[in-house]
Amino acid sequence: MSTLMQSIEECLPAVNQRLEELVPLHDGLTATIHEAMAYSLHSGGKRLRPMLCIFTAQLLGRLPSYVLDIACAIEMIHTYSLIHDDLPALDNDELRRGRPTNHCVYGEAMAILAGDALLNQAFQTLCRVELPAEILLEVIQVIADAAGTTGMIGGQVVDIQSEGKHIEMDTLRFMHEHKTGALLRSCLTSAAIACEATTEERNLLDCYGYNIGLAFQIADDILDIEGDEETLGKPVGSDAQNRKSTWPALVGMANARKTMESLVDEAIQCLDAFEPSPARQTLVELARYTIERKQ
């Protein structure tokens, strides 16, 4: 078993258990919204974003529990974005991780509210993290920037406005850096801040996060063309159907792969300054996983 898969197996139960504690089912008048939140949040997966937080903490000599709630908060933000992405007003997808999307089960109105509630719960969770106020404020600021118009939402806006248009490479890069890359990058940066990393360590981890974030989105573009629907758990070809701008569409499949591989090489180089350790090896393997994955 690879170091990455072993690390995920060790950390995943704690992440899933904590997410269930933070977003439990409820009885009474608000039962449905909590059920809708849990439906998408507890739908499985390798929890890439929480793992990035935890592996960063381990690289810096901290226990996973030190950043567990930060990791879970970012996963809530990611899940809210998926619920809203799948809505008819955006990507209009009916399948996610092999199951009907949230709005197909609970209706559009409840899906919108479930996404809103997860975003709110994420920041409630962050506000309760036991860190010195100055450090916690910086953690929250980094994550808020990554989730808002300076990050994920900004990238989503450019994605919507670019549908059916020929766009320049700078625009495509901006879209990918922000829509997918910003939140991934914040996993490393927020964990580094919480662990009181040095400026050099933070810069190196930010470099790693930038490169794997962009590589991850290019890989997503490729999987939407070449992936297997059963393995992906969602339809393939939706980018072309929705006339979206993608890396393969703009530069061709061969150049897209070349760029993706170069980004991963750069990400791994960012880790060279850290002492050899299982955590560093895990992050090296995770960088490669972002472009070798089948889903």
From TrEMBL:
Membrane-spanning residues: none
Top EC class of this enzyme: transferase
Cofactor: Mg(2+)
Enzyme Commission designation: 2.5.1.1, 2.5.1.10, 2.5.1.29
A Gene Ontology molecular function term of the record: metal ion binding
Keyword vocabulary terms for this entry: Isoprene biosynthesis, Magnesium, Metal-binding, Transferase
Protein family membership: Belongs to the FPP/GGPP synthase family.
Protein name per UniProt: Geranylgeranyl diphosphate synthase type II
